[in-house]
Amino acid sequence: MDEHEHVVQCHGLERTYHDDGVPVHALAGVDFEVERGDFVSLAGPSGSGKSTLLNCIGGLDRPTAGRVVVGGVDLASLSPTELAEVRLRRVGFVFQSYNLIPVLSARENVEFIMQLQGIPAAERHRDAMEMLDSLGIGELADRRPGELSGGQQQRVAVARAIVSKPVLLLADEPSANLDSHTTAELLQLLADINRERGMTIITATHDPAVMAFARRRIRLVDGLIVSDQRDQDAED
Amino acid sequence: MIAWRNLWRNRRRTLFTAGSIAFACLLLMFSRSLQLGSYTGMIDAATELFSGHAQVQHADFLDDPRLRYRVDNASALAQQLAAVPGVARVAPRGQAFALLSVDERGFGAQVMGVEPTAEQDISTLPTALVAGRYLQSGDEAFIGSTLARNLGAKVGDELVVLGTGPEGGVAALALTIVGIFETGQVELDRGLVQVPLDVFQQGFYLEDQVHQLALSLDRVEDIESVAAAVETLLPQGLAFRGWRDLMPDVVQAIAIDRASNRLFYIILTLVVLFSIVNTFIMTVFERTREFGMLLAIGMRPWRLIGMLQLEALWLTLLGSAVACLLAIPMLAWLSLVGIPISGIEDLLGGFAFPSHLKAHVSLPDMGAIPAVFIVGCQLSALLPALRLRKLDPVEALRAD
């Protein structure tokens, strides 16, 4: 398979921290590839390395050894400024705690990333409204995060992450602060985005419900991939 | 927009910090305006009392006030000086040291020949009388209160003046004391007697000659341009002396006051700037996770720093605007009415001072005060903001 048909390629990925001088191997040699349009869950117990792996793929953390290629770009060769550019234009992030800007409305939060990209005001305003409408929260556009429920905030966070059409959406424990009903709605939303927009999604999670929605489930233990399962129907 | 909204996340802290800036700006505006007003008042009172805003003298007279260092053709020169733009009035004066005696008592003092009408236009000394009246003409004397007390003299007594003429001859005058003055300035009250100029010139063998042509200006601030114009008229050997040359003690008092006030201004400004540093340290600390998120989604650190700098700018503009709105009516009142300060002369070591301390508003200074705070607050906010350059987004996203 040609390298550019993979959105993510990780080869021999290692990440070692030093905790009071003691080396901790968060990733101990991870090899895997993610195809365009895939929906992958990274699962495993706390400390297994799933968040570290997600951070390395997102250009937030640098591996100690190995390579990470995202959308054909080898992140290891990039400067901090170039990494920020990759995060801005190629990767969308959804965080566990929503992390919306509290002084901006839902629409302004979605617009903010386009403002960083230098998109003209009229265009970003239109795109933000379209995105909020498509996610079913257009009527909440003028509300600030403090006036929204957790599920609504996470939908705004998803809108912010995908509005500029990144090649990859990374979600770190996106359902951790949501109840089961809201989690189901969020997962359906992510599944729809994956199916209808063809967006590649990688999520790190403890939640079996999230794993059930993913088409491919990678399990990590002690910084190593111990299983990599793909839905049979997806294979077909 | 986001910077302005961010300010109001912690409304109480923003109001407190902006209030500190407003208070400090207002205090500095008042202090500076009253300081300049006190200088103007001090200079005006001192120059109006006796010296005038400036004088034309022989070039050597200021350092060595001898009888022979005189201004010749004084009448014509006085007319020329009166025509110089910015010169309001001119008063000719002759000056000599002599022995004064009343009955058996004698004291040395300065005898000054003046034109009574011109002198009343340029000097407030004639209005400082405590007994009798001011000079009119003839063999009259107007003497200081301490000198009169030392001589045991009163209005109506005969005053004998014995001095030396320019060529060494004896200069003698027999005068009648018509008035006694008291200014509060020791050297005038104890050591000056005024007589009509023609009597002085006759007694000291002077013709159309004086020792000073005292000038009153329309605006003391224009002294430099008046000096330039006057100097073109002066024959060789004469010099223009501004109030700074004539009253070095006033200049020194102002310099000392400026220095002590500058220290106060610096301390006050630093106190406020420390509170700004503290505010932005708290801001960076409280919003670490948000900054981590912004870095994670691709915002550049310098743009984050710029956002904080913009917040500091809004904060300073808010405080400065409040200060200016409050300062305008208050300074207008202080400029027009002033604060009554009777009795302050004793505190000022005998310097002449007006009865009301009025503010003198200098627009460049009023603009400089908020400008200093704007620049200072930008630097104060930059110290904590620079920490964002090295903020690790992964660590920041884990912050509580």
Task: Determine the strand fraction of chain A and express it as a percent band.
Answer: 25-35%
Radius of gyration of chain B: 31 Å
Outline type of chain A:
globular
What is the terminal separation of chain A in angstroms? Answer: 18 Å
Range of helix content of chain B: 40-55%
Radius of gyration based on Cα positions of chain A:
18 Å
What does this structure look like?
The complex is a heterodimer of chains A (236) and B (400). With 236 residues, chain A is α/β, with parallel strands linked by helices. Chain A is built from eight helices and ten strands. Chain A has a single domain (37-59, 87-230), classed as P-loop containing nucleotide triphosphate hydrolases (Rossmann fold). Helices cover 36% and strands 29% of the residues of chain A. In chain A, β1 and β2 form a beta hairpin. In chain A, α3 crosses α4 (121-134), α3 packs parallel to α5 (150-162) and α5 runs parallel beside α6. The radius of gyration of chain A is 18 Å and the shape is globular. Chain B has two domains: 2-46 and 250-397, no CATH class; 60-236, no CATH class. In chain B, a hairpin with a 5-residue loop joins β6 (158-164) and β7. In chain B, α2 packs antiparallel against α13 (363-385). The mean pLDDT of chain B is 90. The A-B interface holds A 55, 58, 60-61, 81, 84-89, 93, 95, 97, 99, 101-104, 112-113, 116, 160 and B 2, 5-6, 8-9, 289-290, 293, 295-300, 303, 393-394, 397.
Topology overview:
The complex is a heterodimer of chains A (236) and B (400).
Chain A: E1 6-19, E2 22-35, E3 39-43, H1 50-57, E4 65-70, E5 73-74, H2 80-89, E6 91-94, H3 106-116, H4 121-134, H5 150-162, E7 168-172, H6 180-197, E8 200-205, H7 208-213, E9 216-221, E10 224-230, H8 232-235
Parallel strand pairs in A: 3-8, 3-9, 6-7, 7-8
Antiparallel strand pairs in A: 1-2, 1-4, 4-5, 9-10
Helix pairs in contact in A: 3-4, 3-5, 5-6
Chain B: H1 2-7, H2 11-51, E1 54-58, H3 74-82, E2 87-102, E3 105-114, H4 116-122, E4 129-132, E5 140-144, H5 145-151, E6 158-164, E7 170-181, H6 186-191, E8 192-196, H7 197-203, E9 212-217, H8 223-231, E10 238-242, H9 243-246, H10 248-286, H11 288-296, H12 301-336, E11 339-340, E12 356-357, H13 363-385, H14 393-397
Parallel strand pairs in B: 3-8, 5-7
Antiparallel strand pairs in B: 1-9, 1-10, 2-3, 2-6, 2-9, 4-7, 5-8, 6-7, 11-12
